[in-house]
Specification:
Keywords: Metal-binding, NAD, Transferase, Zinc. GO terms for molecular function: histone deacetylase activity, NAD-dependent; metal ion binding; NAD+ binding. It is a single chain. It is built from 10 helices and 9 strands. The chain is of the alpha/beta class. It has 2 domains: about 150 residues, Rossmann fold (3-Layer(aba) Sandwich), CATH 3.40.50; about 80 residues, 2-Layer Sandwich (SIR2/SIRT2 'Small Domain'), CATH 3.30.1600. The two termini are about 20 Å apart.
Length: about 250
């Protein structure tokens, strides 16, 4: 792995405009389980019809199913701490190399870590809105409400509150901004994504530079132009980037 980590460090060192696409692997490394695995949140929440959780029509009929899941999810989010890889991205942002992060995750962990330019294309949990009057609520307010009621209701009008998460049937967010970020990049880091969910999986191909993919598990190469792929690494993010960051520091010291 050391040679690949060294090559990654060299590409980062030479780059002036890095874009990141992050997926579930960024979050599982921080202690947030995936949704569908044997130890996933669906299993832990004892939910029998998980396909309905993010179904927008079903949410309006019976929001209690979603909030059964969401209560458990928020427990994990509030305990989660940013990983080494999160912090390395912040370093690159402060150096002016990293221009932005597109994330498929809804836990807002990049923002918690301190990243400033983050496009949550599937939405996030920090902001919540009343579905009737559109009053905004913070994540902390939702957690407090869920201690007293199964489905959080608006203080203004009694409407059901919904997190700013993209449900099935809703368009993804920040797609135009994400495309521009990728097009203007000279290096794309795909971190913790298997690249199977579109349109996110199609974004890295927009770069004029190279693409590095680091993911523990299989990665779909359907939307990856072979000539742009520097390498694909099957490894835990922190394990790989601890080594890559060390090599990167050596290059900066020369």
């Amino acid at each position: 792995m050391s040679e690949v980590a060294k090559k990654c460090a060299e590409l980062i060192y030479k780059s002036n405009s890095i874009a990141v696409l992050s997926g579930a692997g960024m979050s599982t490394n921080a202690g947030i389980p995936d949704f569908r695995g044997p130890n996933g949140i669906y299993t832990k929440s004892n939910i029998k019809n998980p396909e309905r959780i993010f179904d927008l029509d079903y949410f309006y009929r019976d929001p209690s199913l979603f909030y059964k899941f969401h209560k458990k999810f928020l427990e994990y989010i509030t305990k989660a701490e940013p990983t080494f890889t999160h912090k390395f991205l912040i370093q690159l942002e402060k150096e002016g190399k990293l221009k932005g992060i597109v994330t498929q995750n809804i836990d807002s962990l990049h923002q918690k870590a301190g990243s400033e330019k983050v496009y949550e294309i599937h939405g996030g949990c920090w902001k919540n809105y009343c579905t009737k009057c559109n009053r905004e609520y913070s994540q902390e307010e939702i957690i407090e409400k869920m201690n007293n009621e199964i489905v959080p209701k608006c203080d203004n009008c009694g409407g059901v509150i919904k997190p700013d998460i993209v449900f099935f049937g809703e368009p993804v967010k920040y797609l135009t901004e994400s495309k521009i970020l990728m097009k203007n990049s000279d290096l794309v880091l795909v971190l913790g994504s298997s690249l199977v969910v579109i349109p996110a999986a199609m974004l890295p191909s927009l770069t004029e530079g190279k693409i590095i993919v680091v993911n523990k598990g299989e990665v779909s190469e359907m939307y990856l132009p072979p000539e742009k792929v520097a390498f694909i690494v099957n490894e835990e993010l922190d394990t790989f980037f601890t080594e890559a960051a060390r090599e990167y520091s050596k290059l900066k010291e020369k």
